């Protein structure tokens, strides 16, 4: 079945970027001249999505303002054959809860979830690569992380692995390095069965006292399965200051009109 609906959970607090996130949503932080959410939209469009659902909340109105402008003024955001909807998450109770807020707009079809703070540079579209390989199981994008990083991610317990796919027999949210079953970490791209809502609605808070999407994926392994997808391209964790800075430098270094600024900066420092 073709996947055409994508959920952007943008209801998080962004505490790692305080104080700026008191007034500016994390998803509106810029890589030079475009906010993170803009790149995520471009990736979703390139993957053929035509229904865009943003799960937003108090203090995030600049995201709506931004897209009002973009849809009117930019030919890149030509969504004549699609639609954009906003649904509110009254309080930030975790990624799983944010996804649950989109339930009534999804209905009974598989859908995508994208975290804009995972910025992925790809020759085409990371999400598009996933939809092209979608097999009906819950599918998550995975990257290998260093053992000392596993406690920041959902980590797969591997049943079997091929060049591009990791079949999971279990998954743990933010395990300690000692407890982690692998270094295959979930990053913010998901293709999910709508049955996930039946699980999320009954889920108790998990790690960090939040409703964890990972916990729902774990419960669904016996019925639906869970597949990690090793995508092409480069991912930057723009939920962290280090990752955002690295992404900005990387994008600038690829831009002919900006590269000299970085080179000159280091020359002056030397
Ligand atoms: P994070 O785990 O990065 O949390 O969320 P956060 O609150 O945004 O940031 P920190 O950790 O406090 O710095 C991953 C994704 O899930 C969304 C976030 O907006 C981000 O896209 N999210 C998280 C929600 O939409 N609602 C929530 O309740 C929590």
Structural overview:
The chain is built from nine helices and 13 strands. With 270 residues, the chain is α/β, with parallel strands linked by helices. The protein has a single domain, classed as Spore Coat Polysaccharide Biosynthesis Protein SpsA, Chain A (Alpha-Beta Complex). The protein has a nine-stranded mixed beta sheet with strand order 5-4-1-6-11-8-12-10-9. A two-stranded antiparallel ribbon has the order 2-3. Strands 7-13 form a two-stranded antiparallel ribbon. The chain starts with a strand and ends with a helix. Bound molecules: uridine 5'-triphosphate. Uridine 5'-triphosphate binds next to α3.
Write the layout of secondary structure elements.
Layout: E1 5-9, E2 30-31, E3 34-35, H1 36-46, E4 51-56, H2 61-73, E5 83-88, H3 95-100, H4 103-106, E6 111-114, E7 118-121, H5 126-132, E8 138-144, E9 154-161, E10 165-173, E11 184-192, H6 196-200, H7 213-220, E12 226-230, E13 234-237, H8 241-253, H9 259-269
Parallel strand pairs: 1-4, 1-6, 4-5, 8-12
Antiparallel strand pairs: 2-3, 6-11, 7-13, 8-11, 9-10, 10-12
The site of uridine 5'-triphosphate has 21 residues, from helix 3.
């Amino acid at each position: 079945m073709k996947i055409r609906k994508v959920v952007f959970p943008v209801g998080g607090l962004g505490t790692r970027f305080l104080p700026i996130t008191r007034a500016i949503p994390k998803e509106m932080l810029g890589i030079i001249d475009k906010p993170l959410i803009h790149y995520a939209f471009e990736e979703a469009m390139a993957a053929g999505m035509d229904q865009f659902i943003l799960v937003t909340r108090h203090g995030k109105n600049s995201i709506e303002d931004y897209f009002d402008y973009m849809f009117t003024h930019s030919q890149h955001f030509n969504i004549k054959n699609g639609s954009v909807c906003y649904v509110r998450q009254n309080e930030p109770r975790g990624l799983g809860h944010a996804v649950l807020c989109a339930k009534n707009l999804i209905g009974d079809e598989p859908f995508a979830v994208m975290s804009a703070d995972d910025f992925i540079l790809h020759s085409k579209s990371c999400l598009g690569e996933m939809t092209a390989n979608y097999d009906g199981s819950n599918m998550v994008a995975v990257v290998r992380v260093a053992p000392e990083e596993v406690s920041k991610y959902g980590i797969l317990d591997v049943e079997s692995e091929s060049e591009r796919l990791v079949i999971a027999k279990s998954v743990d949210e933010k395990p300690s390095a000692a407890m982690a079953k692998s270094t295959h970490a979930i990053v913010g791209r998901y293709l999910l069965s709508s049955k996930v809502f039946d699980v999320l609605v009954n889920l108790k808070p998990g790690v960090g006292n939040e409703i964890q999407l990972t916990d729902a994926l774990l419960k669904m392994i016996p019925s639906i399965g869970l597949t990690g997808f090793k995508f092409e391209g480069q991912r930057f964790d723009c939920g962290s200051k280090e990752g955002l800075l690295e992404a900005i430098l990387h994008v600038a270094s690829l831009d002919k009109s900006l590269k000299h600024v970085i080179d000159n900066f280091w020359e002056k420092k030397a």
